[in-house]
Write a structure and sequence with these properties.
The chain has 145 residues and is α/β, with parallel strands linked by helices. The chain is built from two helices and eight strands; from the N terminus they run E-H-E-E-E-E-H-E-E-E. Strands 1-4-3-2 form a four-stranded mixed sheet, with helices on one face. Helix 1 crosses helix 2. The longest helix is centred in the first third of the chain and has 12 residues. It starts with 5 loop residues before the first strand and ends in an 18-residue tail after the last strand.
Length: 145
């Protein structure tokens, strides 16, 4: 199984450029109605215009803000420090700046996180791989069992 998240956005092309720069990925479809963002040959996010219904009808309603209420777009990335630099250069709105999870002690993922907003107000979380924040805890083989 593979997740293929799709979000509605107000400007597919602008959102595509924003995500491509932040996540160091590329567009694989292109256009003003729909986009697929890929990294290392895998689909990581789909963007769909609020204003386009295609054959399936509307996916979202612009009037129903805040977008993504209760949903986080969470990306574990290998180039966390570089992504933080890109986010700073992009002047991304920060929700929770870079922090360790958990803040202290042992347990938890022992990774770095940063929570931010995309151009439509969705909350985007960038996280380093588990065990990379310099704490003592390291993930074991049965972490997700």
């Amino acid at each position: 199984m593979r997740a293929q998240p799709l979000i509605c956005v107000t400007d597919v092309e602008a959102s595509s450029r924003w995500y491509q720069r932040l996540l160091n990925c590329r567009g694989a479809h292109g256009g003003s109605h729909y986009e697929q963002l890929v990294k290392d040959g895998s689909l990581i996010l789909q963007l769909h215009s609020f204003d386009v219904e295609h054959h399936h009808g509307p996916i979202g309603n612009r009037a129903d803000k805040p977008y993504g209420n209760g949903v986080l777009l969470w990306f574990e990335i290998e180039d966390f420090d570089e992504a933080m630099q890109r986010a700073e250069e992009m002047k991304v709105e920060m929700v929770l700046p870079r922090h360790r999870n958990p803040p202290d002690g042992v347990g938890g993922p022992n990774h770095w996180e940063c929570w931010m907003r995309d151009p439509d107000g969705y909350t985007v979380v960038l996280a380093s791989p588990y065990g990379t924040a310099g704490g003592t805890w390291q993930p074991g083989p049965d972490l997700f069992r």
